[in-house]
Design goal:
The protein is mainly alpha-helical. Among the domains are: 122 residues, no CATH class; 120 residues, no CATH class. It has a 5-stranded mixed sheet with strand order 2-1-3-7-4, with helices on both faces. Strands 5-6 form a two-stranded antiparallel ribbon. A hairpin with a 2-residue loop joins strand 5 and strand 6. Helix 1 packs parallel to helix 5, helix 7 runs parallel beside helix 9 and helix 14 packs parallel to helix 17. The longest helix is centred in the middle third of the chain and has 34 residues. The radius of gyration is 26 Å and the shape is elongated. It starts with a helix and ends in an 8-residue tail after the last strand. The N terminus is likely disordered.
Length: 533
């Protein structure tokens, strides 16, 4: 009898400590997220951020439309990749509050991340009964360097994360309660998730599969095995088939729009298969997996360590930890090239790595020996938290503090010499949307100025320009070494469009932005533009 109060007291203190830790991590997360919230979106991943921001900007200008504008290739000015739910919400916030667009995008992204914690908590109910133990995993998600940095960027990642978690939650509720209402909601939310970002949706299909198997193997039913199989096949088909069908319909619609422009046709789904999934060589390349692990801060190492301990000692929740780890690893195995190229893709799967560490803390904290419980809660758990914070402060915080305004110089000069209805021609900048976004001008972007202006592709694009839109300026970026191109290539465009022979602006002081040299970047304008607008 003397041990009961001691045990209850220890459990009470443990629960209070974990709850307090969660509240503190949430507060710290919010405080860090405010740092640089009014900065430009020219920090790392500016390509994807400004692409998303362009969709929101032209939603404000042109209204809400599925064929939202990302004007970088010429008419019809649209290259849709995702259902623009995030862009619409950001545009609405700007129109209602008049706050700057960059800041609005960061705010909405951050709010979606916080909203994602709610279905995340609900899903954990399937595996963990104690409320405080769920807070262990949520705390480790909040302090994960990926989630300290990327939710405050102007991207759709947290929107896709939140909606996908809502899909898993509602689908699980249907599988448990068999209420048709949950089935309808799950189908609708799943449709949104699959069309917002299919690669994130795929991650959570794996989670739903794990939950599905857990429920199927653990349920007690009077139905025969054959009838149970039939029932679950029907349920699974409805839950999964509708979102996948919606995704295919959306991709077909988006491909049709991309096919209307010879430059954007290279971004159709079929052409991006290798880009999305990668190659066999990548999947067996040490360098590729090293880079993927690096983007995840080598969190795979502590995950393997704690899994080894859990499996060896048969600790509680070892099955859940193994499944979480498999989901974390399987995603980059499917979309190898995307996870190799883009560090922000880890937003979709790295929460499962945090879950592995969380399940370890929870398992050890429920061990019969009091000393183990104390070590788990008051030593291991804080060490994980502090370790994550340290990585964030070392890797991401310096980037977050810096406000990158270098490209704004070129953007402001472009705006000065052009009208809002004008089109700018951009060379040697791939299809980076940063300049079209900050100059607030539609653009026709060609990869190489050595391509002739009389080439059939660019000619077909120029012929589609309406009478009220003219090519009024040309921005020429240097080659990959920062050197200007030969004058003969520039003169061809000058003569064709009637630009002045001498540029109105040349920038030779900028150094590096997204690994592209900007010195010797020059802006040419029409001869009739004697003064800035």
């Amino acid at each position: 009898m003397s041990l009961a109060p001691s045990f209850q007291s220890l459990e009470g203190k443990k629960n209070n400590f974990i709850t307090a830790a969660f509240a503190l991590t949430l507060l710290i997360h919010f405080a860090f997220s405010l740092v640089g919230i009014t900065h430009t979106i020219l920090d790392p991943s500016s390509f994807r951020q400004t692409q998303t921001a362009l969709g929101a900007y032209y939603t404000i200008q042109n209204g809400f439309r599925l064929a939202y504008f990302v004007p970088v290739f010429g008419p019809p000015w649209t290259i849709p990749f995702e259902l623009p739910l995030f862009q619409w919400i950001v545009a609405t916030l700007v129109m209602v509050t008049r706050i700057p667009l960059d800041t609005a995008g960061r705010i909405i992204s951050l709010l979606f991340f916080y909203a994602a914690l709610i279905p995340g908590y609900k899903i954990l109910n399937l595996f963990i009964k104690e409320a405080s133990n769920k807070f262990v995993i949520l705390s480790l998600i909040l302090v994960n360097p990926t989630y300290l940095y990327y939710p405050r960027t102007f991207m759709i990642e947290t929107t896709a994360l939140c909606v996908s978690l809502c899909f898993v939650w509602t689908a699980s509720k249907y599988l448990i309660d068999r209420r048709q209402w949950y089935l309808i909601v799950a189908a609708i939310v799943g449709t949104a998730a699959s069309t917002i970002k299919a690669t994130t949706f795929a991650v959570f299909l794996l989670l739903l599969l794990g939950i599905y198997l857990k429920l199927f193997l653990g349920e007690a039913s009077s139905l025969t095995f054959a009838k149970r199989i039939k029932q679950h096949i029907i349920d699974g088909s409805i839950l999964v088939a509708i979102p996948i069908l919606a995704m295919l319909v959306w991709n077909n619609y988006a491909d049709h729009l991309k096919s209307l422009n010879p430059f954007s046709s290279s971004l159709m789904s079929g052409a991006l298969m290798t880009w999305n999934f990668g190659t066999i060589e990548q999947r067996i390349s040490f360098a590729v997996w090293y880079q993927i692990a690096k983007y995840s801060f080598f969190i795979i190492l502590p995950c393997v360590l704690v899994l080894s301990i859990m499996i060896t000692c048969r600790l509680k929740h070892w099955e859940e930890a193994v499944v979480s780890f498999l989901i974390y690893l399987t995603t980059p195995l499917i979309f190898t090239n995307l996870y190799f190229i883009h560090p922000y893709y880890t937003v979709a799967n790295i929460l499962f790595a945090s879950a592995v560490l969380g399940f370890f803390v929870i398992s050890v904290s429920s061990y019969p020996r009091a000393a183990y419980r104390v070590i788990a809660v008051y030593v291991i758990f804080p060490l994980f938290l502090v370790g994550f914070y340290s990585i964030y402060l070392w890797v991401y915080f310096p980037r977050q503090v810096r406000n990158n305004t270098e490209l704004e110089v070129i953007a402001e000069m472009t705006k000065r010499y052009t009208k809002e209805s004008d089109v700018i021609l951009i060379y040697n900048y791939s299809w980076f949307p940063t300049l079209p976004y900050y100059s607030q001008r539609k653009a026709i972007m060609q990869f190489d100025i050595r391509e002739s202006i009389y080439d059939s592709k660019i000619q077909s694009v120029l012929k589609k320009l309406p009478p009220d839109q003219r090519v009024a300026a040309m921005v020429v970026f240097p080659d990959e070494k920062g050197n200007p191109y030969e004058r003969v290539f520039i003169d061809e465009k000058i003569n064709y469009f009637g630009f002045r022979a001498n540029p109105v602006f040349c920038e030779d002081s900028l150094k590096v932005l997204n690994n592209i040299f900007f010195k010797n970047t020059c802006i040419y304008v029409l001869r009739e533009n004697r003064q800035a607008y």
